[in-house]
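User: structure tokens for this one?
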Amino acid sequence: MWVGSFSNRVFALSNQEKKNMKHALLLSALLLLVSLAGCNTMRGFGEDISKVGSEIEEAAN
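Assistant:
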């Protein structure tokens, strides 16, 4: 059966290929988490700058 032979070729990975895939998946997940954390950090930074600007404005008045 063609489907069986195709799936055998796709899922018959060597141990090194499986290890490489695990590393790639872990690296992708890590990069996703870091980028999400970075977005949160930049948002907080923007809010802090905004507060500082508001306080300077109030002090000037």
